[in-house]
Each structure stands twice: as C-alpha cells, then as structure tokens.
Amino acid sequence: MPQDKIDRIKNIRIAAIIALTGNAVLAVLKVIFGLYSKSHAVIADGIDSSADVLISIITLVIAKIIAKPADEGHPWGHGRAETVATAFLSFVIFFMGTQILINSVTLIISGKQNEIPSPVAFVITLVSIAGKILLAWSQYSFGKRADSSILKANAKNMTSDVLVSAGVLAGLIISNVMGSAYADTIIALLIGAWVVKTAIGIFLEANLELMDGNNEIEAYGVIVEAANSVEGASNPHRARMRRVAGFWDIEFDIDVDPECTVLQAHDIATEVEIEIKRRIENVFDIMIHVEPQGDNAAESYGLSEEDMRGGK
Fold it and tell me: Where do the H-state alpha helices sit in the chain?
C-alpha cells in the first residue's frame, strides 16, 4: 500500500480515537449532570454527544475497511465505504435530532414546567463548550491532513455542537433570570432543529460524492492547463472528475497528431498525467484516451475544453 494511503488511514484512526474518548466523557457528564440539575437542554446536548460517540466507533471500523487492498470484487479498492458511512451517519444524526425535537415539543404542548436548572448545569455546559472546541479543532486538523470526508463531516458536526452548547448556556441564563424553565425547553427544541439541519447538510455532501458529482469545478481548469502545457497534446475534452474517499479519479480525452506512433502518443499521454499529478494532490487514477486531431465525433458525456475553461 502506498505510504500516503497508510498515513491517511493512520490519521483517520487517531482522530477517531480522540473523538471517541472526548465525546464519551462529555456525553456521560452531560447526561448525568443534566438529570441532576433537571436541565432538559443539557440532557439533549448529552444525547447529541452520544451520537458523536457512535460516529467515532463507525469511523474506526471504516478505517479498517478502507485499509483493505483492491480485490476481484472491488477493483477500485474499498474507499467508497467511507462515503457510504458518512451518508449513514447523517441518518443517525438526523434521528437523534428528531428525537430531541419530539421530546421538546411534547413537553411544551403538555404545559408541564420543569424545575429551574441548578447552577451545576452552568459548569458542565462550560466544560462542554471547551471540550467541543478542542475536539472540533482536532477533527478538522486530521480531516484536512487526511482529506477525509467522514472526519470533515465530524468536524462540522462538532463545530455545530459548540454552538449548541453555547445555546444551552444562554437558555440556562435566561431560565434563571426569568425564573422559568420554559427557556431551557425551547433551547432544547432549537438544538434538535440545529442537529437535523446539520444532518441534512452532511447527507447532501456525501450524496454528491456517491452520485459521482463534483463541486470543485475549478479543478477542471487545471486539467486544461496541464494538457495544453505538454507539446503534442491539445483539446482536452470529455473530462470527468470524481472523488473516491478523498482521492481524485480523473478521465478525459486529448487530441494528438494522427501521424504519431502508438509509442509517441503514449509518451504524450504519460507527460500529461505527470503534469496533472504535479498540480493536483491526492490523485487516485488518471485515464487518458488519445484521439487523432480532426476527429470531431459527437461526445455524449463529459466536459469539453470550453466547459472546463468556463469552470475555472
């Protein structure tokens, strides 16, 4: 296995262990002290952290799966497992969010008013904010280093958790100032809505990769520059780029002199491939199809050079 893939898997595992440990501690503390202080919002925040524990466990499992080499059944390797897991996690987060929403709405409709949360809820919420900031930073750092969709999604989720805990703190302050626990319940409701929103965002990003989509359109411009910088290559077209667990899979055609030998055309395509890898990091594979200049057969898919220049 290439060293860059080994390093990537190692970073994913380290990040998952850090997240698992940190979130497990925070989840237990928030649920216990939420029950003790009678704060519905703190309990909801603890449930949200429990979902993060599950995310970390699944991330560790995924790190083991994507480490497997390609085989007959998976000639492109097992990298897609990370994207599938990211989509699955969005459903887990969505479920947690809807449960918080349902419980909060039920409590509000019932008209029951809980006791005003005790001061201990303030302390655990401040601890949560500090802990989530550190965890979000670690996931973002490792996610960027490994170019991992699941770590980036987790970093985004934990960044949302910081805002959630800040909202809990605001609700606790309002509840104590106003002498009513309704603010605490309303904050719990807002937490549920925020968690659902985060889940939808994570799903949409994972779905883009699963559908072989690409929102980094400027990368196509790099292909044009790389191809046109090689003598003998022209008119890069029918280009397709997709992400496979943080790595680029690139396919496109180039035109060469029809009088070229097979060896000359191969050397030109190889030079184009080298130029692309110099300009784009984390390339999984490049497939270049060589065509004779003047062959203007209609293309039914992929981007033309004009499309790619416009994307840049």
Answer: 3-37, 40-66, 80-110, 120-146, 149-178, 182-210, 218-228, 262-279, 305-311
Dihedral of alpha carbons 135, 137, 138, 143, sign: positive
Tell me if 3-210 shares its fold with 218-311: no
Each domain of the chain, given as residue ranges in start order, spans 3-210, 218-311
Fold of 3-210: Alpha-lytic protease prodomain-like (1.20.1510)
| Closest C-alpha to 248, from 210, 277, 285 | 285
Q: pLDDT tens digit string along 159-207?
A: 877 877 787 777 777 777 776 667 767 777 887 787 788 788 888 888 8
Report pLDDT digits (tens) over 98-113: 877 887 788 777 766 5
**CATH: 3.30.70.1350, 3.40.640.10, 3.40.50.10300, 3.40.50.970. Which one for 218-311?**
3.30.70.1350
Three-class secondary structure of residue 57 per DSSP: helix
Tokens of 248: 């680029």
SS3 state at 115: coil
Torsion of CA 130, 131, 137, 141, to 10 degrees: 150
**pTM score, two decimals?**
0.62
Nearest by Cα to 219 from 175, 282, 287 = 282
Q: What is the largest CA-CA distance in the chain?
A: 87
Q: Which residues contact 245 (CB under 8 A, 6 or more apart)?
A: 66, 79, 80, 81, 82, 83, 148, 149
User: What is d(CA 41, CA 55) in angstroms, rounded to the nearest whole number?
Assistant: 21
**119 to 14, 34, 49, 124, 176: CA distances (angstroms):** 35, 11, 21, 9, 9
CA nearest 305: which of 216, 225, 211? 225
